[in-house]
Queue: 3 jobs
Job 1
Amino acid sequence: MNVLASIPPPLGSVLILVLGTLVILLLTGRLSNSPTILATIGVLSLLGAALPAMGGDALTRVSVLGVVAAGLVGMLLVPSAELHNSTQRPEVAALILLGSTGAIVLATAGELLSAALGLETLSLSAAVLVALGRGARPLEAAFRYFVLAAISFAALVYGLGLLLLATGSFAWPRPGVVDPTYSYIWTIGVLLIGLGFAYKLAVFPLLWGPLDAYTAGAPGLAGFVMAASKIAAVVALARLAAGAAVPMAPILIGIGLVSIIWGTFGALAQREVRRMLAYSTVANAGLMALALGCGPEGRAAAIFFVVIYVLTILLAFAAMAGRGTGPLPFGEVRGEGLSATRALGLTLALLSLAGIPPTPGFWAKLAILDASWSALGFWPTLVAVIGGVAGVLYYLRPLPDLLALTRAHVSSAPAPAVWFAGAAVVVLGLAPGFAYAVARLAIGG
Amino acid sequence: MALAPIGLQHFLVLGTILFCIGMYGALSRSNAVGVLLSIELMLNAVNVIMVAFAKFIDTPQELAGQVFAIFIMTVAAAEAAVGLAIVISVYRLRHSIQVDDIDLLKN
Amino acid sequence: MELAWLIPVLPFAAFAVIGLFLRRQAELAGWLSVLAIAASCAIAWLLFFRMLGGAPPYEAQFPWLALGPDVALPFGIRVDPLAAVMLVVVTTVSLLIQIYSRGYLYEPEEAAEAGTGHPEADAAHGEAAQAHGEAVAAQADANERTRGAHGVRPPSAAEHGEHHGPPAPLVRDPGFGRYFAYISLFTASMLGLVLANNLLTIYLFWEGVGLGSYLLIGFWYTKPEAAMAAKKAFVTTRFGDFGFLIGILYLWWQTGVLEFGRLAELAETGAMSETVATIGALLLFMGAVGKSAQFPLHVWLPDAMEGPTPVSALIHAATMVAAGVYLVARAFPIFEHSPSAMLVVAFIGGFTAIFAASMGLVATDIKRVMAFSTVSQLGYMMLGLGAGAIGAGMFHLFTHAFFKALLFLTAGSVIFILHRAGAHDPEDIDPRDPPRAQDIRYMGGMWKRAPITGITMTIAALSLAGIPPLAGFWSKDEVLLATYERATHGGGAAYWLLLLFAIITVLLTAFYMFRVVFLTFAGSYRGPADPQYIKESPASMTLPLLVLAVPSVVAGLWGAPQLGHGFGHFLEGADFHGGEMNLPLALFSTLLAVGGIALAWLTYKNGSLLAMAMNPRPSAVYATLLNRYWIDELYMWLIDTFIINWAFAIDWFDTHVIDGAVNGAARLTGSIGNSVRQVQTGRIPAYALAVFGGLALISIWAIVIRPLFS
């Protein structure tokens, strides 16, 4: 018992996830024909992974619970995922567990070497998950995502090397421990590491790979990739910015503002739902980057935001899952034949993304605006508000068609993922206080 | 005239040059396998630097650089495997590994 | 008092139940919705009488989101005289409108299936015309000539080749259940907005109202105009909401409180500086301008007519547009603390009043005339508030709710009757051919065929025109009086100008309202349907008309100076300082109203149309009014230039320059063989350029430029 108790909580979660992965991989042959059992094993592993995290600190709890939620939605969608080859379902489930492992490691790593490994585990799982989608589009998107991820990973480890030179260790950077002669090397190193993390967040100018992956991947899998990456990236960037505010904070603010503008205009030009969502991701990533540069309050707001954002976007992707990997033009939403549950789920998600109160998206934006106002004053906040308000212009375009769908009784398979994510979004909207309190604890406030 | 002894700087410069060559290749090669090779080059540039650090720097964690290099080699192997798998799948679908032909998302 | 929270919850529950379970059970959905609002209405009246009996204001709140140890965002409700009046108005009007809707939402069977073919005959008549406006006018002209040639009646149905024999029977609109779900949501949001005790809660329901209106205006979502109008309404009001949200945050950051009561305290004791009050008030006012369709954000309201007529009535009378006025009234102490903010409110209001009325003079769609009239009347309310008389502004809102609801419902009744008789389906709008069922140029002679509709519309129009002793007279007089008082007591020249605007508007209002009444009911029928099928609407529609006619006549007496200023005393309590009626002013405005009616009678008594309205090449003034001062076009141009083009530029950049990170780079650098040469010519791969150029720019900004400012 003592041995078990001495395992750090994140490691406990990771061990359980890896165990689940191994079980699934060993039983591949049998599980490929019984998706329900497969999903059950996956869900149990994820739930099991959440347990040890409960004993950890707030940072561990937020990261693990967020990633587990993303994994759960992805796992619930495995039986209906649109794959090239349906015998690959067990592999998809295993990759989701592995990706979750990577995301947890990236977010909770004790030092940067582990974080880099977590990042790479997540990247590789993500690229393969996207590639497994049906058709040629996901494959090409995966190739681009993979190449750019690999380049940014190389930049990250290069930065890690510079950091090792400057400080002699792989510890997370802390203010005031750098030898002045090495401070330039240290700064460049921190920036390169930040670049590696920021790729997962998909901010300007690192947005083109993720953009394709979110657009073309099978919806359930792309949703998982997006969600797990964002949570891990925000937590990792928050830790980096906490220790190295000097080069990181202003750059995060600058990147954030540019991303908000870029993503908003980009989304306005889109004619189909999925690429619009992908672009809006950039605008939202910009909001998070902006908040990350705004001191402890801002970091708490960013973590609060990412939890809410991730659940919302998971709801949106879950609602679109099962319809294939092609684009969904605005004009064809009505002909899509979504069931009432899915249409309502997508509606709720879009409302929350647009920040209409009392959906949780409103609270998340409010927290970020508050942080940005107190740290940066009027103009940056104005850009953030405009970005948020302009979101309505594109998010609500499919809404009347979606609501009209609720009249149509298109029977469809039950959508547990939609219910799960939808319930989470509703709860967060009605009681956002708890999540915010945890986010504050997570950044040590 | 005796050459100056090879020091940390030389390895740093070598690593940086290798890294930049790799980055250029990854972004400009039109052959997908070439892109993967260039990425390997970037990672190995980092390895050079890491091992050099381990050799020249006297820290309590003397082995950190070496260990890191081994980690990176492992990761690089995994990356190459995944990358090649994706490239082969693309080839099966499009009968080409020219990155110019990977353009479905543009439409 | 503790029951207050039930008022919004009941309709919301109706929305949830209908939305989740009763979408197909149209009959049940309609009844459930009506029952829920009826219960709310009963509670509202109960509260109202308790308040009238002198009960103290009731307030309750709990923290919703704690941002930090001592900062909490509250959710709370407050019942005071202001809220009680609004609750009564909103629930009563909404109840009547929902009853009415149950009769209204039917459509001819064949129209439900296939789009009505538009008559070829018209095309032949209008072949010379090209542009849209010209086509309309020329077509009308053609009809007019035909009428002359035939001597008696407009081109018969047979001549138009549209309807042979009796018109098709009516079937229920397929979206019946959905309609009641939306309308319940909309009403619930409005009621929540009225009850809110702090800025955040009011914003929450404010957005709910916006969403509800979006869904209702776009109810016939298959019709492109409706979808566009819904979007336009949402986006335009959202533009104002953006200011509203900033205003909330600004006041919060400056004062640390969100509750109206505490903000009022701060403003009244002077703890809030005048600068803060001015900026905060103007930002809040932006939201009110958007929601209440004041200039320059008035553009959405006329288009919002694309929704079903009962929805228009609800939006125009008691909900949505009233929200802006209510917000200003709620935050009134902040506005009062800043004379410059008050002047802005008064000016926007006074200008909107005359501006919208001028456009109402030429509109030919019956609902559009009503819409301009709403915008204009809302301007009056804002003017009253800006003149410092919260009682006058709210009193006008109170009376206006009844007679404007009545006007819209009568207009709906006219449309329904014509539609049923076989005039064009309001759903089928060919942009080149306006809906005859809504175009007053194709009406006339309905006085005998639809007497209840006719009488009630005349009552409402008289009330709106401000003829004593109808409701509109008293409240409009209060607004004029308040402006006059302000002008004579230190308001300065601006308020004299506003008084002039307001008085001219009286004349314009009377004229355009009676233009509609005479063109609809006097003379003989000029439209395409067979007149024998034109008959009164069903009881479920006429009953609400008759009920609404009562307050349209008597509601004004509550606030009449001769009867003790009941409304003002109730609303403002001890603060009330209303004066006596200014008889010369009242007399003058009444004379102007009568004059306007007389002018309309002289022009349109036989249902004849002004030559100008028929002229294919209208004068510049007329064309300007008809095109609404080209403001919509101006906005579209601005949006195109500054938003759409940018969006597409970024999209183009991403797909053509960046897309394919990898391949774009390769294409630019060329193949392996000449890549070196390419580098020498200075070409850098696009992606690398973007990434590292971007990073470099941001780094420069962060390291060099930003420190300069911090």
Job 2
Amino acid sequence: MENFTPLSAAIGGALIGLAAALLMLSTGRIAGISGIFGGLIGWNVPDRDWRTAFIVGLILAPLSGTLVGYALAEPQMPASWTVIVIAGLLVGFGTRLGGGCTSGHGICGVARLSPRSLAATVIFVGVAMVVVAVMRHGLGG
Amino acid sequence: MLVLAGLICGFVFGWGLLISGMTQPAKVLAFLDVLGAWDPSLLVVMASALAVGSAGYAFARPRTPMFATRNLWPDKTTIDAPLVIGATLFGIGWGLSGLCPGPAIENLATLSPRIVVFVAAMALGMAAHDAWQRRRVATGPSTLAAKADG
């Protein structure tokens, strides 16, 4: 557990919860990123302006972070372009079909004590853990 | 005002992901890797977000939002097949990459070609789902509901 960073995790998590609460208080919307971003795809979408603004704010955060010492480092990604494309397709299709992602179900939905969101969160965390276990440690564990 | 609220909330959310380290796929994968050098940070992020989020929601739920006529509080409660299958597919993609939609979009700021391709594939996956669902709705009664939870 040498990489465990509980303090920054708690502070960052509190900000995420604060953002979700503020969005509900101000706009009455759920802060689910797949829903906000997915709602921008297509023509004639409602709520285009605030959705776009949310996404812009999300991207501005790490840019402003560079002013106070957070490096804008290139994230570590799978070496294979095929894996990147397949993973992206699965995340996009799966979050739309399931009605939410880590934020919409995992944080907003669980905070609302929604049984659907609790179930979705248990499933996607569990499945992702199995995928990582198989990829890193082989089928036999 | 909706736009300003969206911008500020997106910005605060982005700072939360940045400070907690959740913009780094390697850190997310270290949480998912229960058989390896397990890093429970993501669990703390969720617990902290839930503590603040539930308090905020408890306050916000009975109130009319500042810049809207009412709350759009999701009302579905049944755990149906689309939810289970969707969460499973998302879990596979998340485990393969260490990226969920928030950090993926936030990382567009790095202009990393791999992130750009991932987000493009993600958008394509969403568009494919929506097109498929529109066809189902057009051709007959559908078990899929159009309204998302989040």
Job 3
Amino acid sequence: MIPGSPRARSPGAGWVRPALRLGLMVLVCILLDSHLGPVPPIARFFSPFGGFWRNAESLHASDEKLSLRGLTEPVTVVFDKRRVPHIFAQNAHDAFFAQGFVTARDRLWQMEIQSLAGAGRLAEVLGPNLIEHDRFQRRLGIPQAAARSLEVMLRDEETATAVRAYADGVNAWIAGLDPEDYPIEYKLLGYAPGKWSALYTALMLKNMQWTLAGGGDDLPMSNTLARMGRDFTARFYPLRHPETPPVIPAGTAWDTAAPPPPAAPSGMTGRPVPPTLLPFGAGGQPPDSAALAPSLPAKSKDTASPSVPERNPDPGNGSNNFVISGAHTATGHPLLANDPHLDLSLPSIWYEIQLSAPGLSVYGASLPGSPAVIIGFNRKIAWGMTNGGDDVLDWYRVTFKDGSLSEYQYGGNWKPTRKEVEAIKVRGGTTVLDTIVYTHQGPVVLKDQEQPFTRNTPALHALHWLALEPSNELRAFLDIMRARDYADFAAALDPYHCPSQNFAFASVDGDIALFHHGLFPRKWKGQGRFTLDGSEPGNDWSGWLPRRYEPAARNPAQGWLASANQSPADSTYPFYLGAGYLDGPRARRVASLAAEAESLTVGGAFALMQDEYDLTAADLLPALLPRIARAPLSREDSAARNSLTAWDFRHRPDSKPAALFDQWWRLLYKATWSDEFGGDSVHYQWPSKDRTRKLILEEPDAEWFDDITTPAHETLSSLALRAFRDASASLRKRPGGPPDWAAYRPVVINHLAHIAPFGAMDVRAGGCADCVNSLKGAHGPSWRMVVDLSGEPSGYGIYPGGQSGNPGSPHYAEFVADWAAGKHYPLSFFSDPGMAGGEADYRLQLRGR
Amino acid sequence: MAGLLLLAGCWLGGYLFPWWWPALAACAIGAWLPRRAGMAALSGFLGAGAAWACSAAWQDFRNHHILSHRIAPLFHLPGPMGAIAATGLVGGLMGAAGAWAGYALREWLAPRALAIDPPPFVDARKAAADAAGSESSDGTDAARTGDTPEAPLAGPGGELGP
């Protein structure tokens, strides 16, 4: 022992100290690698070598050359300054392979999470909070339907090539990833991307069908019918809206050889009265207070944890499109415009792309997860879509023999149900089993005494839903992309079934057209408006409406066609397609602006889509303001009233009267109906705001304005005054005083997993729910596109997002500010890679291995 | 010196090894260079912390702070600088724990190594001045009792030296 050495002076330390310190070191590492609530493992996540910093994308991209297994010929991808990929391939297979590759490069996490959501597999990667989400998806039958649709897609050579090549492209990208390259959401949520399969494409498309054709008011309508009676229902929920021009111009001749529509079963009047109220979750039993427990789980506001996605499609999922013939445009050639209104999110639902291969040259908005372009234009034609809104989802009350749910009554007999067991894997290793019961109509989504999934899901009802039928919508898009004229386009729509859409079309030939297209069940008038008795065979759908009877128009004399989710046809149309159309002020305004268009330019078409004029306000204020004109008002209220008098009914971001009107109208609407529909927690369908507007204008003395819960007799005037004072006072109480429109209704573009800092919050923009620019808080124009069909089509567009799905990319939310400001970009449509010139940012050269 | 070596080791090894590399690298360096436990921990913290913070800062600079602006609020950090500092802190914690453990390992396994000449690139005088001016965090450590690095004891050593 050397004197003076430390060891010599502490002979007792031995192995204990190093062991303790090594243990401490390991403990520090374990602690830094733990999930603490929503917080990801800190050390992994913060590591600058493998964590989130690796997602901090450099601002300068450079050309790359890659060899990929699966490509048959070399492909050049030119990325323009907005990071839009322009794919130049030598065959369709390679074009879709490259589409899969570049889309995954930019949007992998979004693609996978949306497909897993469709598959009901979120709990597998995100944990037990998502079990109920997954159960609901599976009860709806979406994963099973996707698998059946995939079979159809794979039987068709074209779609099989497209989905397989796309999947190979996605997997080629995934194969090249090390964990440090994973999109940041994987790192934050702590899982890894799996292998992509063609089924994911089918799931993604099925989930779109849920978004656009998964709504249904059957349950609240039935509850309303039971409570308010037939007269009220007929009066306040009319099937026809003469004020609103239909999608297909009134007076269009229908196929005179149309077969008679099916008859309602004997004893049916078209409006079956359910035996009792159907509070959701109460299984059709007589309501009692214990059974009425409608409180849905509150949405998590936790910024770092994913919350349960909204499970009910937004009833405002709509859109505008219009086509103007050359007679009314500045160029003398048609203009086509389209803006689909969807939940706004980051990453955006859309991804711009150009696909070029022999026989294929198309530009437009694609859905990450699916090959093809969904809305866009090629060298000859342009097309755009709005939601059709037809009723293809019906609920059938099932009378089960006993609690085993093994037999149900049908046509006077007992029929056996079919049962399938679903295994929901949960992160952590457990598996939840769920038995799904099917009648011949479809799955029984909610059993008795279960926590309801959505407010519109009735218990012990079987779901008959078109989206559960196998179909191959992708084939339609593959053909549309190659269509050269009207005949090609009309034929291309054939395989498209669901969700029904208003397909607007324009061509360089000068044609304009609009097809209200989808697969429509043949129904008797009113069938499926309310929940149906599932034991009555006459309530089943009776086949499909042949395509030649669908409402469509080509080159009408009026010189324009427009749709905004309103009724497809006027009262002479012989078939019943549904009742949930949005026959409101937006449709009326779009139609009137399209009709007035003369010498329309591209800028004019964008201005039309961004119109902020509120037809409801323009109708109502002249009727309501006089009712409070002589009322004693405080100085502030009086000034507020004067501001409304001077308002031009436009929802501009800086308009204070716009905010005041909205608040006033909200409170007045609520005051009108809350007494009629109050007193219990049953889910009712209130008369629409548009119908209430009509009531105010046409029947201002109606009994409905009296609040039946008070002994006093209220009138429209007294309700309006009270609502006005409350509205004015509530706005004054806000910090900073009465807000302007953009502060009152901030636009929030949330991240898909509700990770707040990854979203765009408090975006200031104009527009309103009833405006053509139908921009609500988190819902609105998700892609604005105008195509000028003169000679070579030229497109213009913008969406509220950016091409990259990486929050660390300059291209992540690149377009949001311009979108909010009402700007748009010219869409570069290159004929060959060399044409890109200075517009190219960088190139990707792909070749087979 | 130990800190600088660790900085370089953490940075280069960061691309090759998993996230816990700073702990291991610091353990090795702690078992080699520092002459006092407190010094080991401090060098570990500063070396690994600087490696992580500098690497983060470089990536943040190239990114024009786009990502750090989005990440910082997730963890209630004050902007990009907060995200960089937090990164340094996490790396530093692992570095400190690793180096402290490494020093204790050497105490136990190769006590003589503590007495050998430091490698020629270590400025012995500076190390001595540091040692004299700082308290070890290790309360019972013999290192506190006054080694005399100015007159390093000769030993058979070299077993841990370069």
